[in-house]
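Section handout, structural biology tutorial.
Before the tutorial, make sure you can parse a SMILES string by hand: atoms, branches in parentheses, ring closures as digits. In the record below the ligand is coenzyme A, and the chain has 191 residues. In the tutorial you will relate the predicted structure tokens back to the input. Do not try to memorize them.
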Amino acid sequence: MKHLGTITLETERLLLRRYVPDDAEDAFNNWTNSETVTKYLIWPPHGTLDVTRGYIQYCIDGYKNADNYNWVIEYKENGQVIGSISVVRLEEEIDCAEIGYCLSEKYWGRGIMPEAFGRVIAFLFREVGVNRIQATHDTNNPKSGRVMEKCGLQYEGTLRQAGKNNQGIGDKVVRAILREDYDIRSGSEER
Ligand SMILES: CC(C)(COP(=O)(O)OP(=O)(O)OC[C@H]1O[C@@H](n2cnc3c(N)ncnc32)[C@H](O)[C@@H]1OP(=O)(O)O)[C@@H](O)C(=O)NCCC(=O)NCCS
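Predicted structure of the complex:
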């Protein structure tokens, strides 16, 4: 892999960019303090704006590492910061990146996360040289599985009682896309 860090990526509707301190209020109002968004996440709602401010500073500090991939999602139409997508785990020996994401409930159902994830997948395969991109979700959170499916991640299995989130211990679905799958998929889309 050739690490490039969190560089700005763009799609039709979105800007994926580094966090800045001014993002705290939007982040807090849109997702970091939401019971609904965090239902199947491993962290609880932030509770106060200061917790989000501290979290964003932690993210900003992380950008000094070239292998850090942590984007905030800006909706171009209104300039609002509406969610995030990041590499939550890198396995260097097998060129594997695991992705996590969340989005303000107000923006659900518009294909926004598939658009963001699709751009991140292209970047990781084409520019960073990743070979495998994986993601996992709780069996009770199929919405997240749909995003993965739309982006070409295949179902690989369900690990029983292998995950813990705000709902407790649960079964975890593993999905992944390989660079070779992506090449075939991109080829068929171009034809
Ligand atoms: C998972 C998530 C990122 C989906 O993003 P999105 O941009 O809404 O994705 P899509 O528009 O493609 O919708 C995905 C599925 O969610 C469901 N969905 C969409 N809008 C919905 C809404 N308003 N209410 C309930 N479900 C909805 C649909 O099943 C949809 O699939 P479909 O298009 O085949 O009908 C978003 O729901 C989210 O942030 N959830 C909370 C955080 C989370 O669970 N992160 C992943 C942890 S593994």
